[in-house]
Amino acid sequence: MRPTPDTPKTPDQIAIMAYLSGFVLTTLVFLVSFWYRPPDVPTVVLCTLKSTTGIDCPTCGMTRAFCALAKGEWQRALRFHPLSPVVFALFGWWWLRSLLYLLGKGNWVNRVETWFPPLWTVLVVVVGVLIGWLFKLWLQ
User: Under DSSP, is residue 107 helix (H, G, I), strand (E, B) or coil?
Assistant: First the structure.
């Protein structure tokens, strides 16, 4: 029997699609970051908060920092956003995690995630970015 578009997907198929999506998206982020060299001072402001209020958003500078980190320019990246290496590492883990699951090595991921549960790790990074943003606003 041929599967049709309305045939329900098994949990394994859904997981494979999710890991494949994660792998492709993070690969694209890293490739664009490596090839694109944004100016140090943005010429076009895409951030809605910045364009409407003039206030930097919590992730202002993260794109430029990712591009700098992909090229190994750590000092430049830290100038753009001080927590960019942490977020970059989180994206790297997401890429590696997706790849390992796709290769059938999910048990390695499970070992790491017993020490660093994904939800808590993301929450800690998000809270860190928000605290850094509030500190930056306070210094201005």
Answer: helix
pTM (predicted TM-score):
0.81
> Helices H, strands E: what count in the chain?
7, 0
Q: What string of pLDDT tens digits covers the 140 residues of the chain?
A: 566 667 777 878 888 999 999 999 999 999 999 999 988 888 888 888 988 998 889 999 999 999 999 999 999 999 999 999 999 999 999 999 999 999 998 888 888 888 889 899 999 999 999 999 999 888 87
Q: Cα 139 to the chain's mean position, in Å?
A: 26
